[in-house]
């Protein structure tokens, strides 16, 4: 008598291995953005065709791996600038190799230079510290008994 | 005439843990992070999905003595932990990629992606126990 068919315990869907490779590539960029990343190597490990990898990555994340890496770096830069780190330190901390290219790229993406953004954020932080209730909606503050 | 929904509150068990979950796992952005008055360790903390920055989710701590009695706070905590509250539908471009990424980050799914009449949907829980639908809606 044939043994009963084992219950299917692993969830599967079409192209599951393709998805897992692409997600691993994305998570690799998320984790190692601060270092020089050779995107060709990621493509080699994930696929035999770099072109195919880029196309698939873009179809999921709306950006090429390179564009995605740049966006991770600049978003991290915003966080560090907000924390008060100096612009030159931020530039290298997020993986850029040239201060001028970092500043130019930042300005192009966000319409403000890193230095101006940093000053703006420090000003907001100082205001929050000084007058926090200006930043908390009245309904919440009122219910909490602060007004 | 009411025009928009801009803020909602989600009860969380621990704001620091919720911050980590919504920012580092779900990829939301911090909109406001203001220490409460008087400083009691809690803050006015709102976050938003990356493509929807004007829709703020207030991660509200269940704080005994602030809004609730001890008994109410305990009841509310229990209900949140039990997964009583469904908090909404989050949409994504590609549900399988999002599902794999969130799973890799340790997010607990109670239902894997499944085809429904409106698209493909999965269910997951946040770090407190609140549950969300994650959906890739059909276009058109």
From TrEMBL, chain A:
<dbReference type="GO" id="GO:0003700">
    <property type="term" value="F:DNA-binding transcription factor activity"/>
</dbReference>
<keyword id="KW-0805">Transcription regulation</keyword>
<feature type="domain" description="HTH araC/xylS-type">
    <location>
        <begin position="23"/>
        <end position="120"/>
    </location>
</feature>
<protein>
    <submittedName>
        <fullName>AraC-type DNA-binding protein</fullName>
    </submittedName>
</protein>
<dbReference type="Pfam" id="PF12833">
    <property type="entry name" value="HTH_18"/>
</dbReference>
<dbReference type="InterPro" id="IPR009057">
    <property type="entry name" value="Homeodomain-like_sf"/>
</dbReference>
<dbReference type="GO" id="GO:0043565">
    <property type="term" value="F:sequence-specific DNA binding"/>
</dbReference>
<keyword id="KW-0238">DNA-binding</keyword>
<dbReference type="InterPro" id="IPR020449">
    <property type="entry name" value="Tscrpt_reg_AraC-type_HTH"/>
</dbReference>
<dbReference type="InterPro" id="IPR018060">
    <property type="entry name" value="HTH_AraC"/>
</dbReference>
<keyword id="KW-0804">Transcription</keyword>
TrEMBL record, chain B:
<dbReference type="InterPro" id="IPR029068">
    <property type="entry name" value="Glyas_Bleomycin-R_OHBP_Dase"/>
</dbReference>
<dbReference type="GO" id="GO:0051213">
    <property type="term" value="F:dioxygenase activity"/>
</dbReference>
<dbReference type="InterPro" id="IPR037523">
    <property type="entry name" value="VOC_core"/>
</dbReference>
<dbReference type="GO" id="GO:0004462">
    <property type="term" value="F:lactoylglutathione lyase activity"/>
</dbReference>
<feature type="domain" description="VOC">
    <location>
        <begin position="4"/>
        <end position="137"/>
    </location>
</feature>
<keyword id="KW-0560">Oxidoreductase</keyword>
<keyword id="KW-0479">Metal-binding</keyword>
<protein>
    <submittedName>
        <fullName>Catechol 2,3-dioxygenase</fullName>
    </submittedName>
</protein>
<dbReference type="Pfam" id="PF00903">
    <property type="entry name" value="Glyoxalase"/>
</dbReference>
<dbReference type="InterPro" id="IPR004360">
    <property type="entry name" value="Glyas_Fos-R_dOase_dom"/>
</dbReference>
<dbReference type="GO" id="GO:0046872">
    <property type="term" value="F:metal ion binding"/>
</dbReference>
<dbReference type="InterPro" id="IPR018146">
    <property type="entry name" value="Glyoxalase_1_CS"/>
</dbReference>
<keyword id="KW-0223">Dioxygenase</keyword>
């Amino acid at each position: 008598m044939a043994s009963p068919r084992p219950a299917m315990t692993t969830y599967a869907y079409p192209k599951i291995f393709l998805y897992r490779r692409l997600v691993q590539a994305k998570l690799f960029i998320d984790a190692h953005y601060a270092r020089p990343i050779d995107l060709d190597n990621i493509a080699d490990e994930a696929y035999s065709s770099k072109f195919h990898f880029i196309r698939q990555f873009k179809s999921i994340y709306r950006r090429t791996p390179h564009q995605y890496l740049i966006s991770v770096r600049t978003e991290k830069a915003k966080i560090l600038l907000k924390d008060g780190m100096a612009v030159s330190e931020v530039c290298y901390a997020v993986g850029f190799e040239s201060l001028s290219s970092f500043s130019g790229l930042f300005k192009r993406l966000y319409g403000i230079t890193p230095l101006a953004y940093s000053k703006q954020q420090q000003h907001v932080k100082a205001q929050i510290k000084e007058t926090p209730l200006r930043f908390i909606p009245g309904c919440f503050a009122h219910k909490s008994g602060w007004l | 005439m009411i025009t928009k929904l801009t803020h909602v509150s989600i009860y969380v068990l621990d704001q620091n843990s919720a911050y980590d979950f919504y920012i580092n796992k779900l990829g939301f952005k911090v909109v406001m992070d203001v220490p409460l008055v008087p400083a009691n360790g809690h803050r006015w903390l709102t976050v938003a999905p990356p493509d929807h920055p004007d829709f703020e989710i207030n991660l509200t701590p269940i704080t005994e003595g602030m809004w609730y009695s001890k008994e109410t706070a305990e009841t509310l905590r229990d209900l949140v932990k039990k997964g009583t509250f469904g908090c909404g539908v989050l949409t994504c471009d590609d549900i399988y990629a999002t599902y794999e990424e969130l799973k890799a980050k340790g997010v607990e799914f109670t239902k894997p992606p499944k085809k429904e009449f409106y698209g493909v949907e999965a269910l997951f829980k946040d770090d407190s126990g609140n549950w969300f639908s994650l959906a890739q809606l059909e276009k058109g």
